[in-house]
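Moderator note: this is an archived Q&A kept for reference. The question asked for a predicted structure of one protein chain; the sequence and the answer are reproduced below.
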Amino acid sequence: MTASRLRDGATRILAPLVAGATYARMLHLLVGWIFAGVVLLVYPGTYHKSLGEIVLKAVVLDAVLLALIALVPAARRAEGVQARLLLVPDREEDIGVEPSRTVADRRRMAGWLIGRVALGAAVGFATVVGLTRAYDLLTGPDAVRYLLPAPLVVLGYGWLVIGAGRLQLSMAERLLGPSPAERLAEAELRAERLLERNRLARELHDSIGHALTVTVLQAGAAREVGDPAFVAKALEVIEETGRRAMEDLERTLVLLRETPAGGAGGNGTAGNGAATEQPGIDQLPALFDTARAAGSPVEAWIEVPPGVLPGVLSRESYRIVQEGVTNALKYAPGEPVAVRIAVRDGRLELRCANRLVALPGRGGPGRAGSRKGGKGLRGIRERAVLLGGEATAGVSAGVSVPGEAGDGGAEWVLDVRLPLRLGA
């Protein structure tokens, strides 16, 4: 146990001495020392001057020059890149590489430059004095007496460099690190990326989920009916639905690759010629035709004048209706679906309703509550909130689906209200 502890202790002491980061940080210290040395030789010089006079004048001149350098915006970028390369931080993000933009940035930059040169000069001074003294002792008449403690002196000097490098890294993280404004901008960028990923996840859920629902229903119906004409029609619907799902998937992949619309392909196409424009409210009739082919009658009333809806509202409305129809196909296959879309009092109103039915293994109408926690309905509510509107979904008793007057059974109703203009 004691031997193991001794090995661990020796490793902790000796390992940093052979680490590459130690020598990279030593080089960084050396740059500051060289700067201070050059200034010292130019002015005030060392000839016929006391040590106090030399240090005082050199320090004042160094501080003035470094403060002037700190005023240059690009100096912060250059120092940040150099610190990342030579100080070897655990995370490169802890040291900024943006140019100075504010007075606070320049003030921190001046503090960094002065601190860096002062620390480098101190280590350099200790190195020169130590080497000079060691040479005098090891070449003197009593050199043999100093051979034994020499390794300890070298070890101490090594840890002086290690400590100075770590101190300089800590200074760099504090003085060259991102400013509060840069951290806020970075947080906003991360939030935007997260929102974009969530939006793409909703796109995939709505599009692929709808396609899979239609495909499963068509395949199951074709197997049950067995009529060749019906089977051929079902296969046609499956093929068309799959093709549309592949187009939606390709559009989403284009966005994930950050390929701008109209970039390589031009005219809103990707480099391979695939359209990147998302479907809008004008493409709802094709969606309803797909649902009808899956066996669910769809009655739709679209009372939206051309050109009234902004592009983003048209695209999001399509996805909302698509999710509503998909839910109807999934939870009430074969039942009539009523969709009404209208513009009233500066708001877009969407309503999707279908009669509740009891499915084998799912119980009666009460099973509709299982929809409340679904990702699709949560996505609809998120879309509505982002657009400044609201969405409600649930069971509505005693209301008939349009076209089925007098039925009066319970329905599942999705109501969405969106302002035509955000903030209206």
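Archived answer notes: Residues 180-225 form the longest helix (46 residues).
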